[in-house]
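To assess whether the prediction recovers the assembly geometry, we first specified each molecular entity separately, as shown.
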Amino acid sequence: MDGLLRTDNATVLLGISLGVVYLLKSYLTPGHLVHPLTLGKQSDVERVRQKGESAVYKNYGWSTGIGMDAQLLYRPDKDVKSVVDLAKLDADVTRTLWSSKISNADLKTRVRALGSGFVREAHLNPEESNVLLLLNDSLDFLISDLALASHNIPSFTISSLSLLSAVLDNHPPSAIICHIHFLTHVLELVAENHEFSHHTIIVVGEGDLPDAVRKVPVKVLWLADLERKGAKGEPVEAKPTNPETVFSVAFYPGPNNELRAASLTHMNLTAGVTAVRRQLPLVNLAKEDAVVSSHSLATPYGRAIMYTALYEGASFSTSDSTAVFQDGETHHFLAIRSAGDDIVKSAGSPNPTILFLTNPELARLSSAILAKAKESFLFWMAWRHKLHALQQGYLSKDSAWDAQVFATARLATLKQASSSLRAIVAAGGGPIEAAAMTPSRIALSMPLIFAHAHPLVAGPVFSSHPLDLQDFPAKAGEAQDKAHVGPPAVNVEAKLAGVDDAAVEGGASPVGEVVVRGPSVAVPLGSDIEQNSWLPLGEKAVVQPNGTFKVLS
Amino acid sequence: MPFGIDLGAPINTALLLANIYFAQGIIFPKVSPPSVTPTDYKQSYSWMPKSHPPTVIFETFTPKTLAKYDGRDGGRVLLAIKGMVFDVTAGKSFYGPDGPYGNFAGRDASRGMAKQSFDVDMLTPLDQPLDKLEGLSNSEIDNMNGWIDFFSHKYLVCGKLVENTD
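The predicted structure of the complete assembly is given in tokenized form:
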């Protein structure tokens, strides 16, 4: 008996060392950033559903506090009634917009001057005239947009060049604002169409007008002239705007490249800004931030992102990939370029802190970072440790493994943006694979929000929780499982139509067409659907038991 | 005593193996995901509830089909006010067949709610058209609407009541 239970000094030492190692293991196992219980119920689900439809899913923010004051779903603050209020031009803020440093006072003066110029010199009539904005995202776009909105002159935007002739045929505008490089192309199209005597073309930029101008009887004005002349003399007073009036029509291509349009009212945009602000609940967008967006201002979501940045007093810029108009050529933007180039800004601009990327850009960025990180011989150990922490629900940019391996990779890819970036929102450009979520999270190690946007909704339709780090095994038979995009945005109600009732009663997840309702959902142009009634988006999705959606098409 | 690990001693061996096991857990942490999605948050951070929250399909009832839901066979207890059908199974002790207001189970209770009466003569027979609520004073209509508010907040609206088709 004694021989079996022999103890000596070594036993004591081993016992102490066991205690130390065990405590170390518990200490080093990280805790979750968000309790997994809350991730099991991310939407508020109605208990009754119509036949052939799923239940109505709402965001929890709807019914906790914010829902009590319904006004807050429509606008970020009760005094913000129109798009111009969103810009908050009376606040004392200086920020960088597209690499020009400008204060709100200057911005207000320029918007007032241009507005007066539009009405007095270009003879645009409030509520009657329409202006087609054929500008790439720039400060000129913003100032023109605000000037037109302040005088109730609806603007038209197109998100794809192929729509230009269709728009000129079906919805001829009173005036067109375009850049001088694009003028020849516009003149050709205007000449092909008939009513060009009504067209006024307002040119942005400097240089000599092309000869084609003389051949086509249109009136050509310079934007800079309009602003200068508008600044002299009495400013034209802007009438107060009703939030329900249309301030912009965003044309976008349908599934067969046919012309479709979203009629955006002031209320759609203020509600969109409310939703975008709530996409970043723990990140707290503030005036020290610099937002870079890859969503063109010609889309409602892109506009909502810009106005959110303006509302918060942050700097704003768009990446080059949003350019629709390029020197008269008709090719689209998505050029193959080095992953970080779009994001890295030229010297003199603030380093970006929050990015709104598209899904393909996120994929390119994270694979570039991981490819660079693999060059280190510690990569596999670092990956394993970060993956282990991620599976417990923890992610940090500043861990020891990051300092060794991932920080250098991020620095090489993102250059000076790598230390300033705080959060990334990925939406649009096609769904992302579920298997790509974890590698992206590890590569970036910062709050990463997967969202879904639609050309008819100002603001996100679905948006995931920033600290949701869950990863699920791929289901057998579903080779390409898509990533989930979280619960509906804070002021959007969503349900799925065309659902198989028998399957759902049997416990399967509902699959059907997404139908949404809410103040940020715009009415399609020319339809008799009313604001705040159910609108099908033409996309298929599935909802999971924890209330998150996966968009399938 | 010489300082060496006497592996012949089982306790030492056991402690040594335990040390190696935990140390290996620190240096090479386990990262293989489970093959089946966990259904409990205590099992794993990445978990998914086993089933969706229960939902009820919004149905259209006629007086004859609604009458089946009087709770006598242990099923749901439904009652209708002003065309809206409420699922009052949670209040079975009141509205169920043995409760004080059991007369309303599976029936149109509009007139009874308006006149604050639970008598059987408030109910319309099943084969007759729906009660058009004639002859009610304004205060009775207000009373009925008050009851509708109460029921909407407390119970689920799970259907609507329409005329018999046969």
